[in-house]
Amino acid sequence: WEIDTTELPLGVPVVFNAHTVDVTHGFGVMNAAGKLLVQVQAMPGYVNQVQYVFDAPGDYRVVCMEYCGLVHHDMITEFSVSAN
C-alpha cells in the first residue's frame, strides 16, 4: 500500500481513495487491537472512496483483505492518528 501521509488527524473525516492497476485488493484499516474499522475494494480501473473519522489516537494498520497473489501477506502499511 502507498499512502500519502503517515500522520492523520483525530476527529476529522479522512477520505481514503483506493485504486490499483493489477488485480482486486481489499483495503482494510485495523486498530492496534486488530479490530477492522473500515474496508473498501480496490479494483483496476476504478477509484473507490471510503471515509472514516478516527476517534482514538494511536497506531493503525492497512492490510489487504482480498487474496491477490503471492505477495498478499506483505501488503501491510501503518499510520498514526494524533490530536495535533
What does this 3D model show about the protein?
It contains no helices and seven strands. A hairpin with a 5-residue loop joins strand 3 and strand 4. It has 84 residues and is mainly beta. The strands form two sheets. It has a five-stranded mixed beta sheet, with no helix packed on it. A two-stranded antiparallel ribbon has the order 2-5. The model has no long low-confidence stretch (mean pLDDT 92).
Summarize the structure.
By secondary structure, the protein is mostly beta strands. The protein is about 0% helix and about 50% strand.
Beta-strand content: over 45%
> Helical proportion?
under 10%
Q: What is the residue-mean pLDDT, rounded to a whole number?
A: 92
Radius of gyration: 13 Å
Order of helices and strands: EEEEEEE
Shape: globular
Task: Characterize the biggest β-sheet.
Answer: 5 strands, mixed
Report strand order across the widest sheet: 1-7-6-3-4
Number of helices: 0
Head-to-tail CA distance between termini: 24 Å
Q: Please provide the count of β strands.
A: 7
Structural class by helix and strand composition: mainly beta
